[in-house]
Amino acid sequence: MGIGLYQVFKPTDAPQVTQVPVPLVTGLSEGAAESTIINNKLKLGKVTYVNQAEDTKGQVISQNPKGQTMVNEGTPVDIVVNRGPKTAKIPDGLRGMTEAQATKVLTDAGFKVKREDAPKPEPVEFRKGQVTEVNPAEGAEVTAGSEVTIRVATGLSEVPNLVGMTEGQAKEEAERLGFRLEVEREPSTQTAGQVYRQRPSRGATAQRGTAITVTIATAPATQTASASTPASTPASTPPASSPPASPTSKPPASSAPPSSQAPSSPATSPSTPASEPPR
What are phi and psi of 95, to 5 degrees? Predict the structure, then answer.
């Protein structure tokens, strides 16, 4: 009886537990690490996500137990997965803000700000001190706390060459580049209706919104007849004349000389006979 009871209630041997090595899963993706753990007769334990360096983004960066540790089959293995750096979105609406406004918005969002002059030629719609460009672009997802470059307008543009243009052409070109046009007109031998002088001169640098003054040629004034033709007496009005001088007349040969003049010796008259000598 006693032997029978012993056979019934005798203690059984403890179940045999098999140990296995924990695989090394650091450097693997989360999915690959889970498969490796299960294939080694272990199970996936707690998964923790962190934000760390970009170069290990998406990888298991630590595990517990460590690789090659001997554990019982079915032991859970905890892993830590790096999701990469924490990201943030570049705010919208920065272009067109002043430098001070854009800097405040970005620093409030946790970014560092780097300032540069806008490259030439600058977009003409921006005034001095306005943000023309943001890099990375507005709305981009980037590493939180990273550096954002803003490019700021100087307000300067190169003055175009307007000489040889009509007023309409010069106005269109000046406004296209952000300038105003002021017009002066002067008589000139240059082509009438065209710009022949400007200031500032072409190639100079000037603030957008300022005026370019151009001089447009007009035809020289035509001289009047009174200015060009000397005054003359009309041909229809004869000049006043003095009465003609009396010609000096010679006394007729038969006229006797004045009494104040001595008479000339008369020639011997043939009609007077010569007196005969006395006999």
Answer: -65, 130
